[in-house]
Design brief:
Order of helices and strands: EHHEHEHEHEHEHEEHEEHEHHEH
Number of domains: 2
CATH topology of the largest domain: Aspartate Aminotransferase, domain 2
CATH architecture of the largest domain: 3-Layer(aba) Sandwich
Shape: globular
Helix content: 40-55%
């Protein structure tokens, strides 16, 4: 039985065209990009071409792109690096941030910084009133994600950034889930720093970037040979960076088609969900077109995910980076969802290659598995 992949917010398959662009840097002798000979110069040219591709995809300048190995690394770099070059004050982050933002913010408390979470409403939208109140304390940096990896809710980052800027703080956004699904512009978002990642847009794992306003004073992430403007030393992963650049170019070219196709699949799916007596989260908010997050009373999300996996459907019970946790989704708890319902949460995230037939077949399987699990629960009770 072949499995149907419905977990594209966790990671995506490598596009064959991206792999083709990477192969020369994996199969042939290539130089260190810092070397002066022809092999090194060729590698440097490839890295700089990819930097331009990433910049153009993000509405930024190539000089603002700093390559990292992951979105987690870029987010840690932004939070710790920006705060670290200022006097100990406050770091703010939304209550629905990925752990790779919230945990480094809290870790900075050991070095004398304060950290605090900005609340969201019942639909997953950030409270700007609370943000303004919290900004009355001296603040180094505020980090609010563009689009949530679980609910898909899109924040009004430009408005939030203006509030943060007026308070004299720096603004960072994790745009990992937004790139390739909705138009993303570093300039239009009005932020000082922005994170994007390769493996969410059919590029290779092991490549990401922090887009950084050059006027921001930030501590280096890694000290060494001085690569990436002296901010992230270490020999560049040329093949992965080349792949990231190619993936960015393809993602931007296809973003409108991706959005219309996946929203059609999601709308069809959620119409079918309504007949199954489930709770769909954040339906009233602006969301990523491909993402649906729902829950059933009385059925654990992990149990349903495992059951669906056995039937050939790959979905998630929340963030892939916290899938080893048995705790309810922190995103749903921040939205005021009761823990018992939050434990039943399941995320479906569609991709460009999913089909309407797959959606209708999945709905049939989902209905059958829900009925089966309810019967088992009834017997157990």
């Amino acid at each position: 039985m072949s499995s149907i992949y419905l977990d594209h917010n966790a990671t995506t398959a490598l596009d064959p065209r991206v792999l083709e662009s990477m192969l020369p840097w994996m199969q042939r002798q290539s130089g260190n990009p810092t070397s002066r000979h022809v092999f090194g110069r060729s590698a440097r040219d490839a890295v700089e071409h990819a930097r331009t591709q990433v910049a153009e995809a993000c509405g930024a300048y190539a000089s603002q792109v700093i390559f990292t190995a992951s979105g987690t690394e870029a987010n840690n770099f932004a939070v710790k690096g920006i705060a670290g070059n200022q006097a100990g004050s406050q770091i703010l982050y939304s209550a629905i941030e990925h752990p790779c933002v919230s945990r480094p913010a809290r870790a900075m408390q050991q070095a004398g910084w304060l950290s605090d979470a900005i609340g969201v409403d019942a639909h997953g939208v950030l409270s700007t009133a609370q943000l303004q109140q919290q900004l009355q304390k001296p603040t180094s940096v505020a980090s609010v994600m563009l689009a949530n990896n679980e609910t898909g809710v899109i924040q009004n980052i430009a408005e939030i950034a203006e509030i943060v800027r007026k308070a004299g703080a720096f603004m960072h956004t994790d745009a990992v889930q937004g790139l390739g699904k909705v138009p993303v512009s570093f300039t239009d978002l009005n932020v000082h720093a922005m994170t994007v990642s390769s493996h969410k847009i059919h590029g290779p794992q092991g490549a990401a970037a922090l887009i950084l306003d050059k006027r921001v004073d930030i501590q280096p992430l890694l000290h060494g040979g001085g690569q990436e403007r002296g901010l992230r030393s270490g020999t560049e992963n040329v093949a992965a960076i080349v792949g990231f650049g190619a993936a960015c170019e393809l993602a931007v070219a296809n973003v409108a088609q991706f959005a219309s196709h996946t929203q059609m699949l999601r709308d069809t799916f959620e119409l079918g969900l309504k007949a199954l007596d489930v709770t769909i989260f954040s339906q009233q908010s602006t969301r990523l077109p491909n993402t649906s997050f729902f829950a059933l009373d009385g059925i654990e999300g992990e149990t349903l995910v495992t059951a669906l996996d056995r039937k050939g459907y790959a979905v998630a019970s929340g963030s892939a980076c916290s899938s080893d946790s048995t705790e309810p989704s922190h995103v749903l708890l921040a939205m005021g969802i009761k823990p018992d319902l939050a434990r039943g949460a399941v995320r479906v995230s569609f991709g460009a290659h999913n089909t309407l037939l797959q959606v209708t077949d999945f709905l049939t399987t989902l209905k059958n598995e829900i009925l089966r699990l309810k019967q088992l629960t009834g017997v157990a009770a």
